Amino acid sequence: MTGELETLEDLSKHYQESVPSDLREANSFDWYLQELNDDPRIARNAHQRVADMFDHYGTEYDEEAGVVEYRMASEDPLHDGENVFYGREVHESIHEFVNKVKSGARGLGPEKRIKLLLGPVGSGKSHFDWMVRRYYEDYTMRDEGRMYTFRWVNLGDVIRDQDPADDTVTSPMNQDPIVLLPQEQRDRVIERLNEEFDAPYTIRNEQSLDPASEFYMDRLLAEYDDDLQAVLENHVEIVRLVASENKRQCVETFEPKDKKNQDETELTGDVNYSKLAVYGESDPRAFDYSGAFCNANRGLFSGEELLKLQREFLYDFLHASQEQTIKPKNNPRMDIDQVIVGRTNMPEYMDKKGDEKMEAFNDRTKRIDFPYVLEYDHEADIYRKMLRNADVPNMHVEPHAMEMAGLFGVLTRIEEPDGERVTLVQKAKAYNGEIDDSDDVDVKKLREEGEAKAGIAEGMTGVSARFIGDEIAEAIMDSTHRGRSYLSPLTLFNHFEENLENHGSIPEENLERYHRYLELVREEYKERAIEDVRHALAYDLDEIQRQGEKYMDHVMAYIDDATVEDELTGREQEPDEKFLRSVEEKLNIPSDRKDDFRQEVSNWVSRRAREGQAFDPQDNDRLRRALERKLWEDKKHNINFSALVSANELDDDERNAWVNALEEQGYSAEGAREVLEFAGAEVAKAELEE
């Protein structure tokens, strides 16, 4: 209804359509058994339901990386892409997390472990955890993710000392209705379900009723002479269960209020003092099932900064994970069914890892490394996402700004390569996928060396995307105050340099190294800026085509040991080796590798010819770059670079033509003038040095 005012009737109808049709219904246990027979998935345990949730929203297999990308993380369909995750390393971590959940769904062991997300600050582990909880809530609203629980009704008709306020009691632990069946009868139902169930896991449930429900069941069975059917028909209703963190229902985030004075009742629940006078201290009805483990039952438990908790407090996690039970004070043990996720940063992990008294806890965790992004193009995507989600409509982000910000972040995260074969920037480019076929760079080996040198994993230290995002925000506001409507890499570099010392998460011993990395990024940007200006000042498609055809004529003659016709005299001559090398040297191809390159472009041309495609150097990235750089070398001596720095020394029409050419490359008019002056000054300085 774009452009029209939404009425209350419209909004109400939209809301009604968004909630499950049976959300308010109460059904019989017989109805539940029939539903279970039609769709055994409704009796899945938490690991099985969470595993299916990831697949439900869609998957895509990245064959090159060998990683499954889950659409809820790679596209975020629920929030229109607002929370997309970028970077190979992050998707590898998510893939590992889901694999552990799926292993737990099959009963292979991880269902009895804490999934511990380990990473530096700002690596996205908390946001991923948040995303999982939001999608779980949505999934349980859908038919594919539906689950049910039960409530006791008409209790006062039979149990004489029942508080009238408790005549109807919902299952305190939101248990699956199937636990109302004694184990022997339950197994018969489950065995039949699994015979017809087509899934990579089997339905299992050996839980006992929670103490309050067990109390009601015992009293009611005694009243009805062990007639289970009468009890379930007269005193049980089946209701839809939907996860909601706000309601503390099947999703719980736990962080104790006082880390120095922790109480296990925050996890396991406590006595309900308002009911003590009614039921007495030892009565299970006088228990308050408000502990975090109780609230998370049938879903997700999320422990914030888990390893900052006291050692003794963490012991409660041992039974919760391994035995899948909790033992509150003054109450019998209770079975739980939930995916327990914890998050922690590196210092806390290293401290607990070295603590011998934490051996049992450490043995019950499955560590999932959640490093920073190590591909600077993907890192740049993080900042673009930040800007997309913000209100910055009047700020033009200049070319290379986000990439250079990403490159700086990545340089602080990757390990310095050994030897002189590959520089740090070259390593970052290799991780980014910028490797020519002729480059002697083994990315897999670089990653292995980096992992070995890093200790735990590469990308677990360095500058966070949060720091860089904050500086981008500051640079935008500073530009706005100065009346500038563009954000350039040069502005960002200044903010990085000024504020590195002021960021509390950057150790002082790293500052000198980070400033050095910033200079490397400046140098990389200088080359890119000059390349852009070179393209604007000297670009000539016709000349590049002509030079490309000439190059290929001479290459073919060289390979075939033949002659080529001279353009001016028409006489046959040997291939012009000087001309060939003048092109190849622009790609830093050494003389001992020239034959490989020439054969490579020759094969490319032959392949295109067989496909009926004409020769066009624009379609071969390496050849195009070489020809562009040669054209620049041929023309640059006729350009007054010092004039680019001063508007007074340049004809307005000529400058405007260059500005227009840069605008076609994505620059704003103001940004184009800045990069013209910057690149002009750098080239003029280089010309003087030559």
From TrEMBL:
<keyword id="KW-0418">Kinase</keyword>
<dbReference type="Pfam" id="PF06798">
    <property type="entry name" value="PrkA"/>
</dbReference>
<dbReference type="Pfam" id="PF08298">
    <property type="entry name" value="AAA_PrkA"/>
</dbReference>
<keyword id="KW-0808">Transferase</keyword>
<protein>
    <submittedName>
        <fullName>PrkA family serine protein kinase</fullName>
    </submittedName>
</protein>
<dbReference type="GO" id="GO:0016301">
    <property type="term" value="F:kinase activity"/>
</dbReference>
<dbReference type="InterPro" id="IPR010650">
    <property type="entry name" value="PrkA_C"/>
</dbReference>
<feature type="domain" description="PrkA AAA">
    <location>
        <begin position="27"/>
        <end position="421"/>
    </location>
</feature>
<dbReference type="InterPro" id="IPR013153">
    <property type="entry name" value="Prk_AAA"/>
</dbReference>
